[in-house]
């Protein structure tokens, strides 16, 4: 018999008052499952998935698996999936289809599907019926048990579908094989309780739960000791960190300050929800030089009626007041955002409100999306009479304005000296190095590879829409 535990979105929607325990990871009794074997993980979606991938890689490397980039030679392939929009899911189904032929050549290859997509009933049914070459399906709440699943499938030679709809305890001290040598993700909380009406995340990632501060501080101290230069604090809504603690009064502002006092060269955080962005947080960012002047603050729409239908809990005016407060207290800050166009019943006037907000907020970048209905969310049942053509035209108009913001943001740094964390050869021009400034601007410049991982000063000669060109100072 194959193991089968399917998800249930209705159950995932429930928010219990149950206390969330923090437990430390207990190593499995299985050892060296991967001796002489290779693994490959393909990661889709947001940084939460990238962080989960590092845990999965850590669990596999603990079992003596080694990493490969070549599908043909891998023994274990994990696809860590994203459910945020339909096109993200279609990409995964396309990839799963292609994998059938690899499995024919290498029948022992174990294919696992992880991440947000398995949390949806319809996805699991589709994999069960149409993608019979997939061996393991597991979700976001049971990453820590992956080795047991893999062992079961390897020994029993049967499929295993194990998806929990309810979040469990917080598991600390999981092994991590970090993807980067000088930049690290640090989860500070999991899940989301906002229930924006278009969004699947509160269903796929469970209720909001904050990690205890001592574990976070210990993790960051350890990273600094190992020479990490940049820490990005992760959560779907980092500003509500700590609101779920029932025994202590400790907020995101407190955490930011405690971390800023450590010797971390760069602290970033994502993602912020405007409704919880307190004055305290703004004050702490302005007070510490090692908290980067870069804030990603998703607005989603500039129309009050659309914001209401989205359940965003703020108005256009409140958002702009917050933005002005941020500009006032952190004058050098770069703001970016997320925007959805063609939300059900968005009118031409609603859309114009969004364009107006983009101008007023002076964003220096934005991720823009056409609304994609997600089964099980409230908005999926809203009447939607906006044609695809109209949606695309709105996206095009919005992107034009957003791109002007990118250029304006970059121009600010022309003929200035900026600090750059050097990442490596540029992806598009291998003869130059590239890295990011404190404001998260991409800089290209000539220099030796020995600079990779260092923070250096670069003089900016020219600003383009997507990047800055510079020369190393005093070279
Ligand atoms: N359709 C389109 N965009 C979405 N996002 C979230 N859900 C949807 C959806 N159903 C966008 C939001 C969010 C970002 C991560 O993805 O803008 O901030
Ligand atoms: Fe989704 Fe809204 Fe939560 Fe962001 S805050 S993850 S958009 S429900």
Overview of this protein structure:
The chain is α/β, with parallel strands linked by helices and 475 residues long. Helices cover 33% and strands 21% of the residues. It contains 13 helices and 22 strands. The strands form six sheets. It has a seven-stranded parallel β-sheet with strand order 1-8-7-6-5-3-4, sandwiched between helices. The chain has a five-stranded mixed β-barrel with strand order 18-19-20-22-21. The longest helix has 24 residues, at 388-411. The termini are far apart. The mean pLDDT is 96. Residues 84-85, 198-199, 298, 300, 338, 340, 369, 371-372, 374 line the site of 5'-deoxyadenosine. Its cofactor is [4Fe-4S] cluster. It is found in: Cytoplasm. It catalyses: N(6)-dimethylallyladenosine(37) in tRNA + (sulfur carrier)-SH + AH2 + 2 S-adenosyl-L-methionine = 2-methylsulfanyl-N(6)-dimethylallyladenosine(37) in tRNA + (sulfur carrier)-H + 5'-deoxyadenosine + L-methionine + A + S-adenosyl-L-homocysteine + 2 H(+).
Average pLDDT figure: 96
How much helical structure, as a percent, in the residues? Answer: 25-40%
Relevant CATH superfamily of the largest domain: tm_1862 like domain
Percent in strands: 15-25%
Structural class: alpha/beta
Number of strands: 22
Q: In one word, what is the shape?
A: globular
List each distinct ligand once: 5'-deoxyadenosine, iron/sulfur cluster
**Estimated radius of gyration:** 23 Å
State the oligomer.
Answer: single chain
CATH topology of the largest domain: pyruvate-formate lyase- activating enzyme
The CATH class of the largest domain turns out to be Alpha Beta
Uncertain stretches = none
Gap between N and C termini? 67 Å
Strand order of the largest sheet: 1-8-7-6-5-3-4
What is the number of domains? Answer: 3
């Amino acid at each position: 018999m194959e193991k089968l535990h399917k998800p249930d979105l209705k159950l995932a929607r429930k928010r219990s008052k149950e206390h969330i325990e923090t437990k430390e990871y207990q190593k499995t009794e299985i050892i060296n499952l991967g001796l002489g074997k290779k693994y490959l993980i393909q990661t889709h979606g947001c940084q939460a998935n990238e962080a989960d991938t590092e845990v999965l890689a850590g669990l596999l490397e603990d079992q003596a698996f080694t990493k490969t980039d070549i599908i043909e030679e891998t023994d274990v392939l994990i696809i860590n999936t994203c459910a945020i929009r339909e096109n993200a899911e279609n990409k995964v189904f396309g990839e799963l289809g292609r994998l059938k032929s690899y499995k024919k050549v290498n029948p022992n290859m174990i294919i696992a599907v992880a991440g947000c997509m398995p949390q949806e009933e319809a996805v699991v049914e589709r994999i069960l019926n149409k993608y019979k070459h997939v061996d393991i399906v597991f979700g976001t709440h049971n990453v820590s048990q992956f080795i047991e699943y893999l062992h079961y499938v390897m020994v029993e030679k049967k499929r295993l579908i194990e998806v929990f709809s309810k979040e469990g305890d917080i598991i600390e001290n999981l092994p991590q094989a970090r993807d980067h040598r000088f930049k690290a993700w640090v989860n500070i909380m999991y899940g989301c309780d906002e229930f924006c009406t278009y969004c699947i995340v509160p269903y796929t990632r469970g209720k909001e739960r904050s990690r205890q501060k001592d574990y976070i501080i210990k993790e960051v101290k350890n990273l600094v000791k190992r020479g990490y230069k940049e820490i990005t604090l992760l959560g779907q809504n980092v500003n509500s960190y700590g609101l779920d603690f029932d025994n202590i009064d400790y907020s995101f502002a407190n955490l930011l300050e405690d971390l800023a006092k450590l010797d971390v060269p760069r602290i970033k955080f994502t993602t912020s929800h405007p409704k919880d962005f307190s004055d305290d947080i703004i004050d702490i960012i302005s007070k510490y030089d090692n908290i980067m002047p870069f804030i990603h603050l998703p607005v989603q729409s500039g129309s009050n009626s659309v914001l209401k239908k989205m359940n965003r809990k703020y108005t256009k005016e409140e958002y702009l007041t917050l933005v002005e407060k941020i500009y006032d207290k952190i004058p050098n800050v770069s703001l970016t955002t997320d925007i959805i166009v063609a939300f059900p019943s968005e009118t031409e006037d609603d859309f114009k409100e969004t364009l107006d907000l983009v101008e007023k907020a002076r964003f220096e970048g934005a991720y823009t999306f056409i609304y994609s209905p997600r089964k099980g969310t409230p908005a999926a049942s809203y009447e939607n009479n906006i044609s695809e053509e109209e949606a695309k035209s709105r996206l095009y108009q919005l992107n034009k304005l957003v791109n002007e913001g990118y250029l304006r943001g970059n121009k600010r740094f022309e003929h200035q000296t900026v600090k750059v964390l050097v990442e490596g050869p540029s992806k598009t021009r291998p003869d130059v190095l590239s890295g990011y400034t404190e404001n998260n601007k991409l800089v290209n410049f000539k220099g030796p590879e020995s600079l990779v991982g260092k923070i250096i000063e670069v003089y900016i000669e020219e600003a383009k829409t997507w990047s800055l060109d510079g020369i190393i100072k005093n070279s």
